[in-house]
Design brief:
β9 and β10 form a beta hairpin. The radius of gyration is 19 Å and the shape is globular. Helix content is 38%, strand content 22%. By secondary structure, the chain is α/β, with parallel strands linked by helices.
Length: 268
């Protein structure tokens, strides 16, 4: 196997509190290879987002290292596109202007002809071409999230880091967004880290699922998803899907139980 693009090496993260340091991640090690779609799943508040934020360059480890192509991650960069649940679009800019924003930054600047072609491509791909001159307040929640995805894709990052990107959407829109994401990845070949609480979403999208423990987060198990790409709705009817869902749900519920016991001990 080729060398990993991303490597978390025995990472520890602690945050200061009035009661002393709070350990969020504890000795976590994980490799992510080119073209993988890796989902991180575990109890709320266990440290999943902190893991992603280290790769994004927003948080530095207290101990250990986060490596990208063998070099320590010390800051955000244009090779990593980050998409959050809260849409992350600029309300004062139109759809076209939102997508164009990243292309005007010095790290991503492109020739004008290419710039316009990129914007038009992603507006078409995301079904936003008819809303090019609209502001986000005139878009539905699903359309605002498509706009956030379009803006992230437009700067051509090698890595997509996604923190519950579809969590605020209704079930039907969420399913459509998952299919759209798979279509784009099939065409453009990104490497993805997804933070999600949805077991079904993790199975449907991922090549590997990393189940982490209650805080401080450690890796409990890594599961290889047995379905190839491209994928469609038929995957949900495969008996292996139901078996995998039951297995992962049981693991996550065990960690929620462990988390509840921790909270009881702390309150005593």
């Amino acid at each position: 196997m080729t060398a990993p693009r991303v490597r978390f090496e025995d990472v520890v993260v602690e945050f200061p509190t009035t009661q002393g340091p709070m350990r969020v991640l504890d000795g976590l090690s994980l490799d992510i290879h080119q073209g993988e779609f890796v989902s991180i799943i575990g109890p709320s508040g266990c440290g999943k987002t902190t893991l992603m934020n280290m790769l994004a360059g927003f948080v530095q480890p207290t101990q250990g290292r986060v490596l990208l192509d063998g070099k320590p991650v010390t800051a955000p960069g244009p090779d990593r596109g980050v998409i959050f649940q809260e849409y992350g679009v600029f309300p004062w800019l139109t759809v076209r202007q939102n997508i164009a924003f990243g292309l005007r930054l010095s790290a991503n600047r492109t020739p004008r002809a290419e710039h316009d072609a990129i914007i038009d491509r992603y507006m078409r791909l995301m079904g936003l071409a008819d809303f090019a001159d609209h502001h986000p307040k005139h878009l539905s929640g699903g359309m605002r999230q498509r706009l956030a995805l379009a803006r992230a894709y437009a700067v051509r990052p090698e890595f997509l880091l996604m923190d519950e990107p579809f969590g605020a959407l209704d079930a039907q829109t969420r399913s459509a967004m998952q299919d759209l994401l798979l279509e784009v990845l099939q065409a453009e070949g990104k490497t993805v880290m997804l933070i999600t609480h949805s077991v079904d979403e993790a199975i449907y999208l991922s090549s590997r699922i990393v189940v982490v423990t209650a805080r401080p987060a450690r890796i409990r198990t890594v599961i290889e998803v047995p379905f190839g790409y491209p994928r469609g709705e038929a995957v949900h009817e495969d008996p292996r899907f139901a078996q995998l869902r039951a297995q992962i749900r049981e693991l996550v519920m065990q960690e929620y139980a462990a988390q509840s016991k921790q909270q009881v001990r702390l309150s005593d």
